[in-house]
Amino acid sequence: MKLDAAPFPYDFTLAHTALVIIDMQRDFVEPGGFGESLGNDVSLLQAIVPACQRVLHAWRAAGGLVVHTRESHRPDLSDCPPAKRDRGNPSLRIGDPGPMGRILVAGEPGNQIIPELAPQPGEIVIDKPGKGAFYATPLSGLLRDAKVTHLVFMGVTTEVCVQTSMREANDRGYDCLLLEDCTESYFPHFKASAVEMMRAQGAIVGWTATSEQLIAALATDVTGQR
After folding, report:
1. Burial, 9: exposed, middle or buried (Cβ in 10 Å; 0-12, 13-18, 19+)?
2. Half-sphere exposure (Cβ direction) of 58: Cα atoms closer than 13 Å
3. Which stretch of DSSP H or E encloses residue 177?
4. Which ranges in 109-187 belong to alpha helices (H)?
């Protein structure tokens, strides 16, 4: 399949591509979660949910591999460096009790992926202690076993966990595509800058395209009209 992506067309084969959905968790996306406790407007992130749903539905219908990530820590916080927990002056810190349970702790209600994008049986779910999807996780091995060479990214936030994961993937040899209308930041100008950086200099980190472009390519491939 070929997408008319930026800065030039993106070629991929569904059998060797995974859709990676970064950190679409209640604590980041829903009101009352960790993101809002930091003073952020979570409605910005909620706005991308419909487009993400459409992509996920189309990807599942086409039979593609799906990977979900959650930024989460063990209940004893043994995998959370003090420098991460103590930085800044938030009203709630990682591990503190919040409206949806302990903040960013595995198994807590707020740490779960939003219902609209909930994983289905057989899909990969990665709990990651850092910003990137590859750091201290089994993702590399799982993708290698599945013979994946290309990754399509969506999720939040663009300039933090999404960009970090794409850069990690790029360093591991994956060709990466970011769906621009399926990613967002609490700071829109950060998203704009991150997207520009990732596709600069001949897709130095990866390509970008829209959800409609991807869904159209999937539909064309399924009908055999390509």
Report:
1. exposed
2. 19
3. strand 175-184
4. 139-145, 163-171
The tokens describing 33, both together, are: 């979660």
Q: Is 150 left (phi over 0), alpha (psi -120 to 50) or beta?
A: beta
Q: What is the pLDDT of residues 42-78, one digit of tens each?
A: 999 999 999 999 999 999 999 999 999 999 999 999 9
* H/E segment holding residue 1: none
Name the token pair of 52: 């993400």
What angle do the packed helices 188-203 and 163-171 form, to 10 degrees? 20
Q: What is the model's pTM?
A: 0.96
- For residue range 1-26, what is the model confidence (pLDDT) as tens digits? 999 999 999 999 999 999 999 999 99
Point out the residues that are catalytic.
23, 128, 161
Tokens 């595509």, located at residue: 177
Q: Look at the block and give the residue holding tokens 């990214």.
A: 153
Question: Is residue 198 within 8 Å of residue 169, measured between CB atoms?
Answer: no
